[in-house]
TrEMBL record, chain A:
Domain Aminomethyltransferase C-terminal: 883-968
GO process annotations (BP): methylation; tetrahydrofolate metabolic process
Record gene name: gcvT_1
Family affiliation: Belongs to the GcvT family.
Keywords: Methyltransferase, Oxidoreductase, Transferase
Record-given protein name: Aminomethyltransferase
Superkingdom: Bacteria
Domain SoxA A3 as annotated: residue spans: 493-578
Enzyme class: transferase
GCVT N-terminal domain ranges (all copies): 593-862
Classification of source organism: Bacteria, Pseudomonadati, Pseudomonadota, Alphaproteobacteria, Rhodobacterales
GO molecular function annotations of the record: aminomethyltransferase activity; methyltransferase activity; sarcosine oxidase activity
Species name: Roseovarius albus
EC number: 2.1.2.10
Alphabetized PANTHER family for the sequence: AMINOMETHYLTRANSFERASE (PTHR43757), AMINOMETHYLTRANSFERASE, MITOCHONDRIAL (PTHR43757:SF2)
From TrEMBL, chain B:
Protein name in the entry: Sarcosine oxidase, gamma subunit family
Domain of life of the organism encoding this protein: Bacteria
Organism field: Roseovarius albus
TrEMBL record, chain C:
UniProt name for this protein: Sarcosine oxidase, delta subunit family
InterPro entries tied to this protein: SoxD (IPR006279), SoxD_sf (IPR038561)
Biological source species: Roseovarius albus
GO molecular function, one term: sarcosine oxidase activity
Gene Ontology BP annotations: tetrahydrofolate metabolic process
């Protein structure tokens, strides 16, 4: 019920929203919870397991009960806490975990079966028969238990990530945080003040307490206004710092306000990675509920929440309130309610020594031991030394004291310690390097102590940062003594709830102890205490107090479970922000991309590059038709292919040749200028790392090529070898992959085509096989390499990338005029398999030079990376799986890469494995499938028939082992 | 004779303007990576000064000005932007033409730093990353060179083949920042 | 996690590539015994506490020796691998 008074809402802004299909009104500044309460809606959800009716318990992000689903269609978001959901015009929400409706939930039958559904029930009951678990038990249980559901549709909304840096990160903008930020900011530090709420002020917004002679909320607004004026301060509201990580890195989730997030391209949430030299945690504290029989009736909530709804949102949470507590705050709750004209029918104070100066029925040394009602609280039972008494109430404000929000101090392995005076865990200093604590999160429960702690924490941080302290004095404020009589669970029969969200009761925790799950971590897992989306923020401490009691230990000995990030739930979408759709990986386009697209070529990804698979011609309906044509084109006329994606590395310096000798197995210092040589490099463990050609442009200038996917790895390797092994060598590396657009021109007519566009024609004498040098094309300086990956008379011609598109189009047109054209990766692959040329399909990281038949290329005259390892006995055994060619000889003609090889008559099991196939292609030149593969002692078995078995597709093919070069073994075509 | 037609890296993907921030393609002229040989740092710096009027930049710094700049480009490397490199530099350093290797964009406007903060993990605070400062870092998933060339303007370089992705990523970030501007 | 590149300064861990133990700097002579090569290539400690490993700052191209504590994640020292190698040689 909304009552008069200012609060922090804007009554001028009326907001229409829906809950479970009904329309309601709220005001600007409302949360869904405050607006529902203002509309006298107490029932907001059903519990996870027993489907008990539940209402709001808190007024903050710790809320376990009031979870709703928001949004429509794909954007539907489950498990949104009504207590932090900002009301906005047109907001559509619905309750969860009920069927058919919130008021009438058939699943609440579970509640009647409760005696059977306690902790460990599933473990014990559904053990047998095993086969039924997946098919029957689990689906049924999952259907009955749970929270909200996703839409199941693709999320089309935008999520963002961002980075921020500061000298001081202040986490929480209550009195301690505000004053810490102000102190540091006035001293000139770069400050980020992060607050999960929509506004700064923390508890000051929920209380009637004064600071500096003004209402606390007004004081907070003034300080915030001063901070907002300062260039060195960034105030981040709606931003929950969810994790503390190494070296001052923090994760924070910003919820973008609804009106902003509706704008074009605006994100819904932004995940921040904040790097702070120092941090002050001023996260406040969370109030503990008290466990007693039926303490989960809608209308029962924490006293702090009752005051928050009253003072901030001007909502009376009931017409007839009972207050139950164990500190002076219970009295303040009564005073606030009475001031607002709300009837309080009893004040129950667990402290025997408590005195009361308010006009209210007062029960000292008493407790609430039961609650009556169904979908709404109707009465509470008060137990005193004299007996029990029933009191009518539609709201119970309860408090078991406060738990400092120590979570972030534990994210790097720290454990909090028990403070008897406040009956709560407090953080340990230095648990997170660079982070100090201030205010209620370290157990300072008076406003004045919070303010003082804020200043002190900031001053300490300023000292660490080497900045001069600013002169800030904590203003006058309430400075009461926190006098608590610990009450966690009121003894008695029936179910008393600890973890509301996961439906864990006092009995469950005791049961765990009885069954010997006495470690707090075991109890947690056995009962699921604290494992719901709220992570037991308001229940873990009471649960372990119950466990301590049940096991006869103290609370400090019992210890806490581990606090892990995130502090509040984080959507997976925000963690993956920036990686949706095109953001997943950058797209690396060659200069020929557009022209290739225009030809209708489908693309395949090679690393980040996009390369054409084939260039379909009119009438071709299957990729094989295009591929066969392109292969024939290269063998018989001329083909053009973009090879710019291969890594190109400039290697320069006086020691360039010597360095290459060290990284390659063969010698490059002996290579003549204007010549190219093929080489491969090993890893230090003796296996082949990469291969390619290297050209010598001048005495001290080489250009190395790498395979497309290994370009980055090779560059890193070169730098490693240079910096970590031979820094005395004077050599420099620069990637020139992107500088040059490079095209293979291959086929018998390749030279004719080139001579049609080179400013100075070439011939066999000036450009023999493996020659290279500078050329001019239409006045543009380019490079020409006579190298071949197809086995044909071929060249690679390179021009600066700006001319790539133009040159590719020209080459394509001229090739087509000669009966050729562009070819793609499929044809390139077939051409190289026909020639037995390797790619990373063969040099996949487990093969040696010996395995690929190139052991002879490891020079005996010099050391090189990997040489020693490659020479170890096991690396050069004849029985190793070594490269061979394979062709089908039986009825079945299919060969599949990945298929394994077996002796003809042997059973196809791993014990009989003889090798495997790495590359397969249909050779139009030979008219059948061909393959490269590795076979035990392969080179000695040419002519033998083996059996390929490919279990995935159920294919078995008899094939003949042959030399890996299927075509033009003498290489006459390449040289001719 | 064949006539080859030049294309720019962004090929129309820029300029972009969203909110207070704009991104445009920059023609930096000739780009030359200059990698000093062993012990030649000083000699190179002097040669640079003599030939092009600017010293070799220290790590994370750029020297020179619009049209003729030397940007620190990594370990033992400087990128000379603008002039055709003087041949004398070759005595002290490995020179490599990179004029076509990089897509160069200028990001400018009141919220330019906020846009960048959505793309790169480096510290962009005005007091930390000042005018004339440069960084080799990542921009989304791309290797990048970012140089602060003015109060509110940055030069961003990524591999040429990433030009379209850079334009796309900038646009997304620019929209996210623009949406938050008060209206 | 933050690592200080000796050239670029403190940077986010995502800018670095992790290689492994800094043992990789101590390559045996070409004619060393096979055992020395096996140790160099394959045998690594798995310390709880101080360790020295090699990270590559992809963006500036520096190989960096990082001394850090595997238990606390504290980074104690970083240095250029080339400096360590040249000074040690």
């Amino acid at each position: 019920m909304r009552i008069e008074g200012k609060g922090l809402i804007d009554r001028g802004q009326q907001i229409n929203f829906q809950f479970d299909g009904h329309s309601y009104q709220g005001f600007g500044g409302d949360t869904l919870a405050s607006a529902l309460l203002a509309n006298d809606i107490a029932l907001m959800g059903r519990s996870f397991k027993y489907h008990r009716p539940r209402g709001v318990l808190s007024a903050g992000s710790e809320e376990p009960n009031a979870l709703v689903t928001t949004g429509l269609g794909a954007a539907q978001e489950p498990n949104v806490r009504a207590t932090t959901l900002e009301l906005h015009e047109g907001l559509v929400t619905k309750s969860q975990n009920r069927w058919p409706s919130l008021g009438f939930d058939l699943m609440s039958l579970n509640d009647w079966a409760a005696p059977f559904l306690g902790a460990g029930f599933y473990y014990k009951t559904f053990m047998w028969p095993k086969a039924l678990w997946e098919k029957l038990y689990e689906p049924v249980i999952r259907n009955a238990a749970g929270l909200g559901a996703l839409s199941g549709k693709h999320n089309v909304e935008t999520y963002e990530k961002a980075y921020a840096h500061c000298d001081l990160l202040v986490i929480g903008a209550g009195p301690a945080g505000l004053l810490a930020a102000l102190t540091a900011a006035r001293a000139g530090a770069d400050v980020i003040l992060a607050e999960e709420d929509t506004r700064t002020g923390g508890r000051l917004n929920a209380e009637t307490l004064e600071v500096d002679g003004k209402p606390g909320a007004v004081w907070a607004e003034e300080i915030t206004a001063e901070l907002a004026q300062m260039d060195n301060v960034r105030i981040m509201t709606r931003t929950s710092v969810v994790g503390a990580y190494d070296q001052g890195t923090f994760g924070a989730l910003e919820k973008v306000p609804h009106d902003v997030s509706m704008r074009l391209g605006a994100p819904r949430e932004c995940f921040w990675r904040i790097v702070a030299k120092r941090a002050v945690l001023a996260a406040g504290a969370i109030e503990r509920p008290v466990a007693f029989r039926n303490n989960d009736r809608p209308g029962i909530m924490t006293a702090g929440a009752v005051r928050a709804y009253l003072n901030r949102w001007r909502v009376a949470t009931g017409r007839n309130v009972v207050v139950f507590g164990n500190t002076d705050e219970a009295h303040r709750t009564v005073a606030d309610l009475q001031d607002a004209g709300v009837h309080v029918s009893a004040l129950v104070d667990a402290r025997h020594h408590a005195k009361c100066d308010l006009d209210v029925p007062f029960y000292a040394g008493a407790e609430v031991c039961d609650a009556g009602g169904g979908k709404r609280l109707e009465s509470v039972t008060i137990r005193t030394a004299k007996g029990t008494e029933n009191v009518q109430a539609d709201c119970l404000a309860m408090s078991g004291g406060w738990n400092p929000t120590v979570n972030l101090t534990c994210h790097m392995g720290g454990r909090p310690t028990w403070d008897r005076d406040i009956a709560a865990f407090v953080p340990v200093d230095g648990a997170v390097p660079g982070l100090s604590t201030a205010g209620a999160c370290q157990g300072d429960f008076s406003t004045h102590k919070c303010l003082e702690a804020g200043v002190a924490a900031a001053q300490g941080a300023l000292d660490d940062l080497g900045l001069k302290r600013a002169d800030v004095v904590a203003p006058a404020a309430e400075d009461g003594v926190y006098d608590i009589y610990p009450v966690y669970a009121v003894p008695g029969k029936g179910r008393a709830w600890l973890d509301f969200q996961n439906d864990v009761t006092v009995k469950d925790v005791k049961q765990a102890a009885v069954e010997n799950f006495q470690s707090v971590e075991h109890m947690k897992r056995y009962t699921t205490q604290g494992m719901a989306t709220d992570q037991g923020k308001n229940s873990n401490v009471a649960a372990l107090a119950v466990l301590a009691d049940a096991t006869g230990r103290g609370i400090p000995e019992t210890g806490t479970t581990t606090y892990r990030p995130p502090y509040t739930p984080v959507s997976i979408a925000s963690l993956g922000a920036g990686a949706q759709c095109k953001g997943f990986a950058p797209e690396r386009f060659t200069t020929s991309h557009k022209a290739t697209q225009e030809k209708g070529a489908p693309f395949i990804e090679a690393g980040l590059w996009y390369r054409p698979s084939y260039f379909p011609k009119a009438g071709e309906t299957h990729w094989r038709q295009s591929c066969d044509r392109e292969v024939n084109m290269v063998r018989n006329a001329v083909g053009v292919c973009d090879v710019s994606t291969l890594g190109k590395i400039d290697v320069q310096g006086p020691d360039a040749g010597a360095f290459l000798d060290f990284v390659y197995t063969n010698a490059f210092s002996t290579l003549k200028v204007r010549r190219v040589r093929y080489g491969f490099m090993l890893r230090e463990d003796g296996h082949v790392m990469d291969d390619g050609t290297t050209a010598r442009l001048s005495e001290q200038h080489f250009v190395m090529t790498t395979t497309t996917a290994a370009a980055g790895q090779v560059m890193r390797h070169l730098e490693f070898v240079h910096q970590c092994l031979v820094p005395q060598m004077d050599v420099r590396f620069t990637s020139v992959t992107e500088q040059w657009a490079q095209f293979a021109v291959a086929g018998p007519q390749s030279r004719d085509l080139l001579n049609d566009l080179l400013d100075t024609p070439i011939d066999d004498e000036s450009w023999p096989f493996m020659a290279c040098g500078e050329v001019s094309i239409g006045g543009v300086k380019g490079r020409l390499f006579r190298i071949s990956f197809s086995g044909e008379h071929a060249y690679e011609v390179a021009v600066p990338s700006r001319y790539g598109d133009s040159l590719f189009r020209t080459l394509m047109t001229k090739a087509e005029a000669l009966g050729g054209g562009a070819y793609g990766m499929e044809a390139l692959n077939v051409l190289r398999i026909e020639k037995g040329f390797i790619t990373h399909a063969e040099i996949h990281g487990r093969v040696t030079a010996y395995d690929i038949g190139m052991g002879g290329m490891v020079s005996g005259k010099k050391d090189c990376i990997g040489k020693a390892s490659a020479a170890r006995p096991g690396m050069v055994e004849e029985s190793r799986e070594r490269m061979v060619g394979l062709k089908p000889v039986g009825e079945v003609k299919e060969l599949i890469a990945g298929g394994h090889l077996f002796d003809k008559g042997a059973e196809a099991v791993s014990a009989n494995d003889q090798g495997y196939i790495t590359s397969v292609g249909f050779s139009p030149t030979l008219g059948h499938n061909i393959a490269l593969g590795f076979l035990k002692d392969g080179p000695a078995r040419h002519g033998e028939v083996v059996r390929m078995v490919e279990h995935l597709n159920g294919v078995e093919t008899l094939c003949e082992v042959c030399h890996p070069v299927f075509f033009d073994a003498e290489g006459g075509r390449t040289r001719g | 004779m064949v006539e080859l037609i030049a294309k720019t890296p962004f090929d129309g993907a820029l300029p972009l303007e969203v909110g207070t921030v704009s991104a445009s393609e920059v023609d930096t002229g000739v780009l030359t990576s200059v990698a000093p040989y062993k012990g030649k740092n000083k000699a190179l710096s002097e040669a640079l000064k003599g030939a092009h009027g600017m010293a070799a930049p220290a790590p994370n710094r750029a020297t020179g000005k619009e049209g003729s700049r030397a940007i620190w480009f990594g370990r033992e490397m400087v990128l000379l932007c603008g002039p055709e490199p003087d041949a004398k530099l070759g005595k002290h350093a490995a020179l490599t033409d990179q004029s076509d290797a990089w897509a160069v964009a200028r990001l400018e406007g009141e919220n330019a730093a906020q846009v960048l903060a959505r793309l790169t993990p480096i510290d962009l605070r005005p007091g930390v990353f000042k005018r004339g400062h440069t960084a080799r870092t990542e921009l989304q998933h791309m290797m990048a060179s970012i140089t602060r060339i003015g109060e509110r303007s940055y030069q961003i370089m990524v591999f040429r083949a990433f030009a379209q992705t850079l334009a796309h990523d900038l646009k997304i970030a620019m929209q996210g920042v623009a949406a938050r501007q008060p209206r | 996690m933050r690592i200080t590149c000796p050239i670029c300064g403190e940077r986010d861990r995502r800018e670095f590539y992790y290689q492994g133990a800094a043992v990789a700097l101590d390559r045996p002579e070409a004619d060393a015994e096979p055992e020395a090569w096996v140790d160099y290539v394959h045998v690594r400690d798995n310390p709880c506490g101080m360790t020295r490993d090699l990270w590559y700052h992809e963006h500036c191209g520096s190989w960096v020796v990082v001394t850090r504590n595997t238990a606390t994640h504290e980074v104690i020292e970083t240095a250029l691998a080339s400096d360590i190698k040249e000074q040690g040689a």
